[in-house]
Amino acid sequence: MISREIVDKLTSLGFKEYEARVYAALVLYGPSKAGEISLRSGVPRPRVYDVLRDLIAKGFVERTQGSPTYYRAVDPEHVIGELRDRYVRSAEDAIIELKTSKRRYEEKQLPILYLEGEWSIRNNLKLLVERTESDLIIGLADGRFGLRFRGILSKTNEKGVYADIILLKPSRYSVEHLRLYGRVYAVDPDKVKSRARNDELSLLADKLLSSIETYSVKAVLVSDGRESIMVYHDGGVLKALNIRLPFIPLFQRTVLKWVAEVYGSVL
C-alpha cells in the first residue's frame, strides 16, 4: 500500500486522492496492469480506469497499446515541474484578477484614495504609470525626491511615453537622470511666488507645489488628465492622495502645463 505521507504531499500539489494513490503506485512499482494498480494503490478497480484516464489526459501517465494494457508513470520531476508551473500561473492570474477587481471597485466607490507609507505610495505610483496611455506630467518640489522613484519612471520609456517634468530645485545630478524619462523644465519658485499676489494661476501653482505649508508637497503626477497622485509630507510622514475625479486631475494638469510654459526653461 502507498504511504499516507506520499499521498498527502501529492494532494498538496493538486492531485486528487485517488490520482495521488494511482500515480504513486506506478512510480514505486513501475509499469502495471489496471488490476495490479488497484491492488497496490487501494483504489477500487471500478474507479481505477476513470482515474487512469484523467491522469493520461493530464499527461502524468502513459499506456501501452495491445492486450494486456500496461500503464506507466511519467517521470516525477517532469510532473512536479508541470504542477509547479501551473500553480505559479494560477497564482499570477489570481493576483491580476483580484487587483483588477479591487481597482474597479475602488474606482467606482472611492474616487479619492488616501495613501500612507512609501510602499503603498510607490505601488500606486507604479500602477498610475502603467495605466498612462500618452500624457504624463510631473511636478517635483525637489529633484532628489524624484530620483527615489526613478525605477517607476523608467516604465514610461518602455511604453513610449515621455513625461513633462517640472523641477523646482534642479541639481546637475537630478537633471541628468530625470532627462532619461522626459523633458525637464527648471522653474524658479521665487518667481512664481512673487507673482502669486496678483496672478490667480500663479497663486494656484504656488500652493500646488508649496514646500512651506503644513502639508509639504513633494510631487504631483497627472496621468492623461484623468488621474493624479499628490505626494506630500505631513509631520515627517510620507502621504499621498490618489485622485480619479476627472475634474481635479485635469485642473492640476492645466496648472502644471501653464507653469512649464510661463516659468519653465528646458534643461
Automatic annotation (TrEMBL):
Domain Transcription regulator TrmB N-terminal: 10-77
Gene3D superfamilies xref list: Winged helix-like DNA-binding domain superfamily/Winged helix DNA-binding domain
Domain of life from the UniProt record: Archaea
Family matches, as Pfam families: TrmB
InterPro entries hit by this protein: TrmB-like, Tscrpt_reg_TrmB_N, WH-like_DNA-bd_sf, WH_DNA-bd_sf
PANTHER family xref list: HTH-TYPE TRANSCRIPTIONAL REGULATOR TRMBL2 (PTHR34293)
Protein name from the UniProt record: Transcription regulator TrmB N-terminal domain-containing protein
Source organism of this protein record: Aeropyrum pernix
